[in-house]
Amino acid sequence: MTRVCFQLMVRPELLDEYIARHTPVWPEMLAEIAASGRRNYSLFLGEAGRLIGYYETDDDAASQAYLANSEVAARWEAEMGSFFVGLDGRPDQAATALLEVFNLHEQLAATGGTATDTTEEGNAS
Questions:
Q1: In angstroms, what CA-CA distances link 33 with 24, 28, 46, 68?
Q2: What is this structure's pTM?
Q3: Each residue of 30-42: pLDDT tens digit?
Q4: From residue 94, how far is each of 14, 68, 74, 81, 105 by CA, in Å?
């Protein structure tokens, strides 16, 4: 499984509209995201329009290719493109990927520990 986290910047003057477009997302777009192999997909909106997205997939290249060839995703991304600052291309293809530097589960597994084995001084932040 691959964890993917990405960042985009939503135009501050369009924040309310961006939120409204995701409440809810088109049912056919939700189905395409799932069909692409993405799961546990979330978007988080921070200060000044900073958008952080996260999803898990077994094959990110295949997921990207599926959505790149999806007529539904193309329509959705065409509508969403104007919401973002400094974006060159479709939002689902051109977002800036973030480097994962820590994962609790993986580090615990490497030490043979479990989540209940952590102590206050061993917590990461």
A1: 14, 9, 23, 11
A2: 0.84
A3: 999 999 999 999 9
A4: 19, 11, 13, 10, 29
